[in-house]
Amino acid sequence: MIYDGEWMCGKREGFGTLSKTDPETKEYVRVYVGSWQNDKKEGAGTYFYSPSAFYEGQWSEDQRSGWGRMQYENGELYEGEWLKDKRHGQGLLLLANGNRFVGTWSDGQKNGQGKVFYLDRGQLYEGFWVDGVAKCGTISDFGSEAAVRPTVYPIPKVND
């Protein structure tokens, strides 16, 4: 590992870049670019997990905490609040297929009110989650005319 940045009393402090050797190419690649405090990631910074996976946002005590955006290798993207390296608070999860969840997270799981937009089939689920499991909610048609794979069971219209 190579650190290029500010130091204080033998510890990383201030702005800096941490790089490591790529085992295949033997070249240095960035791992983290951002703020440090007392030799730990603190404040704003970007961590590169791989060429296609990275987190950019707030850090506290070497952990993702505060507002941040995580791009995953599988194409998913989470943007929202973090606490102690887990999704926690309000956030948006964009799935690789275009569907999305907007709502509350706790300890890395969906907890509380949220909405899932099934854009591929043109439906919207609004409900309440506990430990990542939907417990109570409603589903409605939402943009089904533009859906890639519209549901074969559309919700019937209510007539007066």
Would you give an account of this structure?
The protein contains no helices and 12 strands. The protein has strands at 2-8, 11-21, 28-37, 40-50, 53-60, 63-71, 77-83, 86-94, 100-106, 109-118, 123-130, 133-141. The chain has a 12-stranded antiparallel beta sheet, with no helix packed on it. The mean pLDDT is 93.
Any key phrases for this structure?
twelve-stranded antiparallel β-sheet; 160 residues; mainly beta
Topology:
Layout: E1 2-8, E2 11-21, E3 28-37, E4 40-50, E5 53-60, E6 63-71, E7 77-83, E8 86-94, E9 100-106, E10 109-118, E11 123-130, E12 133-141
Antiparallel strand pairs: 1-2, 2-3, 3-4, 4-5, 5-6, 6-7, 7-8, 8-9, 9-10, 10-11, 11-12
